[in-house]
Amino acid sequence: MNASPPGKTSTVRFSWVTPERVRRLRLASGLILFCFVASHLLNHALGLYSLKAMESGRWLFLAVWRNPVGSILLLGAISTHLALAFWAIYLRRHWRMPSWQAVQLGLGLLIPLVLVNHVIHTRGASMAYGYEDSYTMLVLLYWQLQPTLGVLQSVLLLVAWTHGCMGVHFWLRMRPWYARLSLPLYTLAILVPVLALLGFAQAGRYVSVLAADPEWLRQLLADSRVPDAVGLASLAQARDAILFSLASLLGLTLLARGLRQWHESGRSVRISYPNAQVVSVPRGFTVLEASRQGGIAHASVCGGRGRCSTCRVRVQAPANSLPPASEAEARVLARVGADANVRLACQLRPQQDLRVTPLIPPSIAPALSLVQGQVMAGEERELCVLFADLRGFTSLSEQRLPYDVVFLLNRYFEAVGDAIERAGGIANQFTGDGVMALFGLHTGVAQGARQALIAAQGMQQAIEQLSADLHEELALPLKLGIGIHCGATVVGHMGRGLATYLTAVGDTVNTASRLQDQTKQFDCQLVLSEPVARHAGLDLTGMRREQISVRNRAEPIGILVAKDVRDLQWSVERS
Ligand code: FES
Hints:
Distance between the termini: 49 Å
Bound molecules: FE2/S2 (inorganic) cluster
Number of strands: 15
Strand content: 5-15%
Largest sheet: 8 strands, mixed
């Protein structure tokens, strides 16, 4: 433990509690608990098949979670997750937060309230009195003897599951592949608890029939070794003691937080934003907390956990007046290639007045947060740009109903967009029947050129497949013209509000578009510029070469014409 130097801040810090460690611990403990809840729900779902299947599933469940290793893991995860929740409450400067965070926090705090009762009366009773907490016994209890408790337990499971699903969602949502998997994952997130509840209900109905037989009931109670009245009273006492301890811990945390805020009040810093907005907050607030306090829209895809970089700001402050970036913050900043005067607003706790400029639009999509790195603010990059256009689309659309045109276009965009992404490019604009894509944003222009050629082959193949799929609808197969050029561009996030997207502008982009136009003149699938061929190491044997003039470009440009992209060969290894 150490204290900050005098005159800077008097906040006591635990040097081993770094945000990165906290994040990892929260994630690891959360994932263990999520697996526990998922396996519990799946076990319930077996009730749809039979009570016997439920009981067999329970033995597997117990083998995993009630052996010494599983028990330590589970208990450790519960205590860690809970401790980190209290720690997060202590650190929180105010209660303004995105609604998803409020829901997750609320659900998380609800869980122990109901969980404690369940654990004490199953695992606790089993350890103290040898109680056999079989499914048959618990279903009888929750379905027939105490249905209110059954409803409460079902709600608990749903709360825990929802809390876990939200955690997993916010953990994964910045991954570029997540958007593609989100629909099946969302379906699973709904399906698992629904099946679990149906399984429980089915088992409940079956046990009710069995319980009509007094002898069966007497035997079950005897086999289950249900604790007597004294035992039940001690279990209730243990439950109350744990709940009281948890409530006390929460109270102490809130008290400590209040004391710290009182200590910090009166020593405020002023944070100035563009448009002459100024927010005054006590020292110790992060810049992101100040933005929220001041009602200033500020991107924070990860909710202020120092993982997404979307909250980053350019800072103007007196030299050496800023606290240094933690290891985790420095790593995120390095990952996006941030300048020296850029900091993460959610990690920076200014000690003096300063001016900040948020660099990312508040509406940034999660999947783009880290992918696009520094180019969000606009910068020069050497890139490969691909334009594609569906031949004869105007006459094709004239003969169709608008719905059919939209259907056809969506199938087309899906087919070519997939081919672009598979090759490593970013399909950034779909306009009319045209597509624009960028390659080499993170891999360099040479790799980008190879990726663009692979994409061109994939796109043509996808169009052939689409034509085959729709042959009954189409008089002629679809044809695609593609132009590729590379060179200097200015890349950045442009647009407004929800219509903000990554794009590139400049002569390279215009030229690529003109090359795509040339595919009509040469009646070919692809026209590429010589620089693209050079970067990709394209084998030019037998390829038609031309020099053409391009509008708005002083010099003619050397191009290569590919009748059929399948004939393209490049000598370097494809990636
Ligand atoms: S909000 Fe994600 S890093 Fe700051």
